[in-house]
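Subject: Predicted fold for M48 family metallopeptidase, 465 residues

User T.R. writes:
Posting the sequence so we have a shared reference for the thread.
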Amino acid sequence: MIRASFQRLKSAKRAAIASVLSVALVLPAIAPAAAQGRSVPIVRDAEIEALVTEYARPILKAAGLGNSGIRIVLVNDPSFNAFVAGNRIFVNTGALMTAETPNEIIGVLAHESGHIAGGHQQRLRDQIARAQTAAVVAGLLGMGAAVGGAASGTNGLGQAGMGMAMGSSEVARRSVLGYQRTEEITADRSAMRYLEATGQSGKGMLATFQRFQSGLALAGTRVDPYQISHPMPRERIANLTELAQSSPHYNQKDPAELQQRHDRMRAKIAAYTQDQRAASRLFRNDRSNPAAAYGDAFTTFLYGNPAAALQKVDALIKTMPKNPYLYELRGEVLMRGNRPAEAANAFATAVKLDPNRSGILQVAYGQALLATGKPAALKQATVALQQGLARDREYINGYKFLAQAYGQAGSIGEAELATAEGHYYSGNYKDAMIFAARAQQRLKRGSPGWVRAQDIISSRTKLKK
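User M.O. replies:
I've generated the structure tokens; pasting them so everyone works from the same file.
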């Protein structure tokens, strides 16, 4: 599993200014789960990743980040949030499902791109370091006064010194929060520039902040604006409304085809992350929306029987014969119905139709071939799995099936290495090194596989830094 990059400063004074080193879109009250130090629950889906990456591509180019290797990562979290860490933009499934138009999500991505282009993560680290130094110096002065007061028997001086020491941490914390609020305003304005440069409206960004404002109002929440890392939604709306409305693109609508893809994405997320009526609730006011039938097919697959699901998928394929993700769903339905050979054919069609060459679809094809249990399909499955993982090195599930394929072929060293790779990309470095060492015992010294195993073993050194 990919883990978000967070760091907490551990001494008593440092704890007062501890801060996640990613930069989030929303208020702390709606912060991502990882902000509490937990792992980020990553979602992998070829269709959703392709769509959101398409949303981001022109924005990243406008921000000067087109060739920076920025990657969009989906987080399984129901809250409306997005944040950046390193060269990754993390977007919650809750944001994707809640946003009614592509423009809303594009605005979110533009904001996060502003953070990356502005170097806000590194500058936040620098600000924390400066605030930490100031807090330590002021704290030492306060402690010195307290010690002096105790030595002289002057209680007032001692109490004043302790107050100075405690106050220094609060001043440092507020300094960092104030700096973060400034950077958020900067990212908002950068986002507007990127939207303008790509001929898109800022209306979606305003809708997002209005949603936050409504959420606070409905919750009856009272927030001290000086105790948070983001400007209040009302302030952000006021700062951006005139700028957004003055753009000639303000009333620009998303293309109908893109809106339909967005609706299908929302229906899929609802089916997978909520109850079996969630997808239909999204379109209760527009039952004629084709995305309603799309969501119904996924719901039937998850909660119904394979025969009923297959019937609905095939009906959708007749209306969208070039949609690779319907063939992907068809393959999943057939796999659940224990028909792997037919599933392999469906996945092969999905791979052929996919313009994005998703490693996820390629791995699914290899998995289905492997599940047939036919010796003639084993080599084909191995090649498909290798190709899928070459396209997407971080698709963790693929390594399990690749290890299985190598094991069935008697290539134990390669199977051990595939298992090591899976652990490595999951962040389970200890087991990764154990399996890499086992792989080296069976692989020819100096071979590409042996060298890769050595790289995994050597990651221990990196972890200690």
